[in-house]
Amino acid sequence: MREITLEERIKAELASYNGLMGVYVNDFKGNKVEINTEEKFETASCIKTFILGTLFDEVEKGNKSLTDILTYTKENEIDGSGVLRSLDFGVQLTAKNMATLMIIVSDNAATNIMIDYLGLETINNFIKSHGFMDTVLHNKINFVMYDQLGTTTPKDYGRIFELICKEELISTNASRQMLEIFKKQHYNSTLTKSFPQYFLDSEDTGEEELIYVASKSGSMNACRNDGGIISTPYDKYVIVLFNKNFTDPIYYPDHPATVFSSKVSRLIFDQYLTLQGKLK
Question: Which residues form the signal peptide (predicted)?
Fold first, then answer.
């Protein structure tokens, strides 16, 4: 009897999906899943991963400091995700804390502050110099002036998490610090929506935490994206799930892109655990 591969099972799951999904997975054992991985997608807030990388790169070079004080001003007031827009102008945070807000609650105002602090050109230079040739930050976040924020591919996005996972993005210390920030990210339901919650909730169960996720998601009218590192007792794997060309632009928990992505994520998760740390 012919084996049904993981790629075939994913494609069968997506047969009734009204959209285009890019899937990239790497188990670091020589096995990958690649579906539409060189297709270009709007990044939405996933571009914030590259901005965080730029910050740590500039700190490593001695150009910036994680303890530099940054101020929230009216110039960077912006709607959308985050908490700064609910606070008074003049709030000050260190560069590291501002960047942490940018990642863990996807704070748009903090993102614009970081773009001003680092510089758009510096961010795009970091992106290209580290080999992410299909990724670009187009502009600051401004929903009135711009239709786009960034562009990337599932392969590029997977690679930045691969480098973090291997502690090879900038330096060992920088990779470890970024990993800890990504582990605190609040919006990873696309990757974990169909996971057994018992494994993820050591605080309530009292058991050892068996699974952690270090990720960054992003959503706009044109896309629903998520990607990062899944750590299991067997080892870690990188997963990226990007979506576009769907017909429903409204945001809600059971959006088809989220539902189908979570199904694909669970297929990969089960395969990885069944094979004790491998995809094949």
Answer: none
